[in-house]
Write a structure and sequence with these properties.
- The complex is a heterodimer of chains A (309) and B (172).
- The termini of chain A are far apart.
- Chain A is globular.
- In chain A, helix 9 packs antiparallel against helix 10 and helix 12 packs across helix 15.
- By secondary structure, chain A is mostly helical.
- The longest helix of chain A is centred in the first third of the chain and has 29 residues.
- About 19% of the residues of chain A have low confidence.
- Chain A has one domain.
- Chain A contains 15 helices and no strands.
- Chain B has one domain.
- In chain B, strand 2 and strand 3 form a beta hairpin.
- The C terminus of chain B is likely disordered.
- The chains are: A mainly alpha (309), B alpha+beta (172).
- Chains A and B meet through helix 5, helix 6 and helix 13 of A and helix 1 and helix 2 of B.
């Protein structure tokens, strides 16, 4: 009996040593040497996203891009939110998921059948980018139906959710608050909060903050157009996609950009920006700026791009 | 008390922004009786006394369809005037361009059907605030995928006469 116990302990100890070695090996193979990839327009954005996600995790240790990715890919937002309620998730995750759901599903909260009516109208009468808008509306309708029919949230509640998430340090909430009606946000506040967002290494927050880097933000135009031009916003958004934001063809950001901003097309966010938002010449400028932003992020000197007006 | 102060501050901010950017006769005014807006699911049956969420959803749909025609139109921080299908109108503040409830009615800006005021009807399609080609011409053009609508306002109540010009004939 004693021999059996000793044998069991030895086996457990051996397994623990193997597990520890494996963990150390895995960590080692991921870390410092894996620099953030610098984007090139010819590389597939999906591949880039995967590479970037891995390196973002390795360079920041505990940071995970999971909340925004899960929100974006959830087939049923209500179920996703329920799963957050029952699990321990990073600070602000539940609040921002609820607030984002309200932002995405609001049209159905107002009128539950509005999505289906809108789709029927587009199917009957067509319109610009009708096929892409129909697809986006169908996906939003499917994701939102349970949430829209059950939520009791009102605008003030949602603003409070964003505020609370921002207070808890959620970078995406900070980014949302500073770009919400950006022209009314004091310039010094924008600058301060932009720095907070950039230091969080959160791709979804970077995407949301992109407006602050456009010509409407508080920063001077840079010679490379990374900051301060109309196109700068796209450069930062695409950089966010490179850093791990879910910008795939069926992602929440692609659907919402198509419905509300007219950035529609047959593919991921990058494809659609090219398809519907910018000229080929502008896209070239955007990718150059995007590469510089990615490089600055990798080198840890993004602040060098940001000079106050 | 603190909440009340914050709410009032938001109201002042919105109204101040509206008068600075959307006031006078030069601001963007959108008639929801136009063909591209008239069937929108949150616009049909909505007026300036509807539930606020419905007004917001309707105004957001209108802003979204406007952006299909005018690239970079109605960015966050912009304002525009919306004339609902019953002729009532109100000013709208664009808080967000990605939210389905991103275009918010400005408190106190509501006008009854037939009332004059606000930022003027048919006074252009944008200008520096909303993007697009601001104009005082009574005829406005609204580009679509395969052509454009040329519309003329026939009265102050929001009735428009529109003619469809396919791309092949536009500008001919």
């Amino acid at each position: 009996m004693k021999k059996t116990t000793k044998l069991s302990l030895s086996v457990v100890a051996l397994l623990a040593i193997i597990a520890a070695s494996y963990a150390l090996f895995a960590q080692g193979s991921n870390s410092p040497s894996t620099a953030l990839p610098v984007s090139t327009a010819s590389t597939s954005s999906v591949a880039k996203s995967q590479e970037s996600t891995a390196s973002v995790s390795s360079s920041t240790g505990s940071r995970k891009a999971i909340p925004s990715t899960d929100y974006s890919t959830a087939k049923n937002i209500n179920a996703y939110i329920a799963s957050l309620s029952s699990a321990s998730s990073p600070p602000g995750t539940l609040e921002i998921a609820q607030a984002k759901a309200w932002d995405e599903c609001g049209s159905l909260i107002a009128r539950p059948n509005s999505g289906k009516l809108y789709i029927a109208d587009l199917q009957a009468n067509g319109g610009k980018y009708a096929e892409f808008r129909i697809k986006a509306l169908q996906q939003i309708d499917e994701r939102c139906k349970d949430f829209a029919f059950t939520t009791q949230l009102k605008r003030n509640d949602v603003e409070n959710l964003y505020k609370n998430a921002a207070k808890e340090g959620n970078a995406e909430a900070i980014a949302r608050n500073l770009t919400n009606g950006i022209s009314t946000t004091p310039a010094d506040k924008v600058q301060q909060e932009v720095m907070q967002v950039l230091s969080a290494n959160d791709p979804a927050a970077l995407f949301t903050a992109a407006d602050a880097f456009s010509d409407r933000g508080p920063f001077e135009m840079t010679p490379g157009g990374e900051v301060g031009t109309t196109n700068s916003k796209y450069a930062w958004q695409l950089a966010a996609c490179d850093q791990g934001m879910d910008c795939s063809a069926s992602s929440a950001v692609v659907n919402q950009s198509c419905i509300y901003m007219g950035i529609c097309g047959p593919g991921d966010y990058r494809t659609n920006v090219q398809y519907s938002a910018v000229s080929p010449a502008n896209y070239q400028e955007i990718t150059k700026a995007e590469n510089n932003i990615n490089r600055a992020i990798a080198d840890g000197n993004v602040q060098s791009l940001l000079n106050h007006k | 008390m603190k909440k009340l102060i914050v709410r009032w501050a938001i109201c002042f901010l919105l109204i101040g922004n509206a008068s600075a950017l959307g006031g006078g006769g030069k601001g963007l005014s959108i008639q929801t009786t136009l063909p591209i807006y008239k069937n929108l699911s949150n616009v049909v049956g909505t007026d300036n006394s509807s539930d606020e969420t419905i007004q917001t959803a309707g105004a957001t749909q209108v802003a979204a369809v406007y952006r299909l025609s005018v690239a970079e139109g109605l960015p966050a921080g912009a304002t525009f005037r919306i004339v609902w299908q019953d002729g009532s109108s109100e000013s709208i503040f664009v808080a967000s361009t990605t939210s389905s409830l991103g275009a918010v009615p400005i408190p106190g800006s509501q006008k009854a059907a037939g009332a004059s005021g606000g930022s003027g009807s048919g006074s252009g399609t944008g200008g520096s605030n909303g993007g697009g080609s601001g104009s005082d011409s009574p005829t406005q053009t609204f580009p679509e995928a395969n052509g454009s609508w040329a519309c003329t306002s026939s009265d102050s109540g929001g009735t428009w006469n529109c003619t469809w010009f396919p791309d092949a004939t536009t500008g001919a």
